[in-house]
Amino acid sequence: MKAADFAYEKPVDLASALDLLNDEDRDIQLLAGGQSLMPMMNFRLAQPELLIDLNGVDELNFIEEEGEVITIGAMARYSQLQASPIISQHVPLFTLALPHIAHAAVRNRGTIGGSVALADPAAEMPALLIALGATITVISKSAEREISARDFFIGIYETALGNGELVKSVTVPKAKKDNVYGFYELTRRHGDYAMAGVAIAAGSIDPVSDLKIVLFSVSDKPRRLKDAEAVLDGKDLDNADAHASVKRALTKFEFQGDLNADAKTKQHLAGVVIKRTLEGMV
Amino acid sequence: MGQTENITLTVNDEQVTESVPVRLNLVDFLRNNLGLTGSHVGCEHGVCGACTLEVDGVMVRGCLMLAVQADGSSITTIEGLGENQRAADLQDAFKRNNSLQCGYCTPGMMASALEYVETIRNPDRDAIREHLSGNYCRCTGYQSIVDAVLEVVEERAKR
Ligand SMILES: Cc1cc2nc3c(=O)[nH]c(=O)nc-3n(C[C@H](O)[C@H](O)[C@H](O)COP(=O)(O)OP(=O)(O)OC[C@H]3O[C@@H](n4cnc5c(N)ncnc54)[C@H](O)[C@@H]3O)c2cc1C
Ligand code: FES
Ligand code: FES
User: Which of A79, A207, B116, B130 is deepest in the core (most CB within 10 A)?
Assistant: First the structure.
């Protein structure tokens, strides 16, 4: 099908984009990579009255290193992140996960800001950001605020973004010497949305400290497996006890099924992805 | 009729200026307005890869970009690749290996394969499969396509 008609604007700077967005009367969509929005428009699941194309706003496309953090503009594309030496040096979890986000031609257009704003429960990026303890900077015509990834993702396609606000950038801490990361997902075809996946970050692993296990595509949003994190803290990662405590924690986790698999299958798959990831980390 | 915009772009080394409705997507513009029917349309939601083509040096989904967004850019379609010989060895390898049957997927497959042999160049079947994972083929079973790409990667490495 073809997209329904809309009005189109392509602002050349952030201030004009925010001016256009500051309009409560019209149904507005921002066009970033278009890799999720265009399909929704072609299916007529989205029929915005006004489309604001962010591809002319160069201020939103950057990858910057400053002190202990890396800040990434909303319009940075996945392919740019993959090619960036700053990312490969300081954000190893991104390097592990990026090849699994969609296919090469989609990564050439899709942006980090679009993925964050969309908040698809099956998407990798929100889970990575929670695992890294990232901060998301959002901006409107009148104010700018920072929201932790933990609080930003609220539910299925639901975020803390308010009216007139857009995602400006994402800030992640640089990896330190002892930090260890893991990522794994199960898909029907490489690059498709995962049936279940996990991103794991550890302050250190011998012994384990500051562990974050973030499951995605198994619930309404990426969620931490806190019960298992607590049990594993201070221990050795890859042993029978660890796997048993993960299994126990999974029985208390609230799984949600989708078109791919029901909740029970998701629970099983979550156990598989965590086991494989932990094995890869030690 | 809704909003229209004038766009000027380069398509297969020729400059084109047209007025387009803003809701028109890039692959429909190329097919219907310019008669370049080599790029195919399968799903219109980014999944099948039949519409994959080159915009400013990178491969993208023609169904997920608006024609108006291509203003000022340079596009190469399968017709352009046929003329400029950049993919001549790949085309030969596809023929030799029977890497196409109905041909519906071939223009998009060729675009993705060309990106691989020009920029990734890793002579590894798994890596080739991963790169082509966004292009569906319902005829060949992929094996012969991977054979062709691998052959070209190896031949180009010798040059
Ligand atoms: C075949 C295929 C497979 C895919 N597989 C995966 C996958 O495995 N994993 C995955 O995560 N994704 C996948 N995707 C989706 C892809 O990653 C998208 O690029 C991404 O989800 C959205 O980014 P975008 O830049 O394309 O955003 P768009 O599609 O342009 O926008 C998405 C939404 O976010 C809003 N938005 C965009 N930018 C901003 C901003 N700065 N501030 C506020 N709102 C904004 C838009 O208004 C829209 O509502 C796939 C897509 C395709 C076509
Ligand atoms: S028609 Fe564009 S990906 Fe299928
Ligand atoms: S040759 Fe028929 S779909 Fe690929």
Answer: B116
Three-class DSSP category at B98 = coil
Residues 6+ apart with CB under 8 A from B132: B109, B112, B113, B116, B142, B145, B146, B149
In chain A (282 residues long), the average pLDDT of successive 10-residue segments reads 95 98 95 98 96 98 97 98 98 97 97 98 98 98 97 97 97 97 94 95 91 97 94 79 88 92 96 93 84
The strand pair at A144-148 and A135-139 is best described as antiparallel
CATH number at residue B23: 3.10.20.30
**Residue-wise pLDDT tens digits, A152-179:** 999 999 999 999 999 999 999 999 999 9
Residue pointed to by tokens 């609220």: A154
pLDDT computed for residue A242 by the predictor: 81
Query: Cβ–Cβ of A39/B45 closer than 8 Å?
Result: yes
Are B74 and B92 in the same domain?
A: no
Predicted pLDDT at A41: 97
Measured CA to CA, the distance from residue A206 to residue A98 in angstroms comes to 27
Do B61 and B42 belong to one domain?
yes
Q: What is the CATH number of the domain that holds B117?
A: 1.10.150.120
Rounded distance between C-alpha atoms, residue B57 and residue B156, angstroms: 19
Interface of B with A in 32-91 (CB under 8 A): 44-46, 49, 52, 58-61, 63-66, 68-69
A266, A185 Cβ separation under 8 angstroms: no
Out of B17, B47, B81, a domain closes at: B81
Give the domain extent around B16.
4-81
Are B71 and B53 in a shared domain?
Answer: yes
Looking at the complex, report in whole angstroms how far the Cα of residue B131 sits from the nearest Cα belonging to chain A: 6
Distance CA B137, CA B42 (A): 11
Question: Of B15, B49, B81, at which residue does a domain stop?
Answer: B81
Strands (E), A174-241: 180-186, 196-202, 204-205, 208-209, 212-216, 223-224
- Among B28, B47, B135, which residue has the most ligand 2 atoms within 8 Å of its CB, making it the best to mutate? B47
Do residues B51 and B112 both lie within one domain?
A: no
Question: Using CA atoms, how far apart are residues A121 and A20, in angstroms rounded to an integer?
Answer: 29
Predicted complex: ipTM over 0.90: yes
Q: B59 with B91, same domain?
A: no
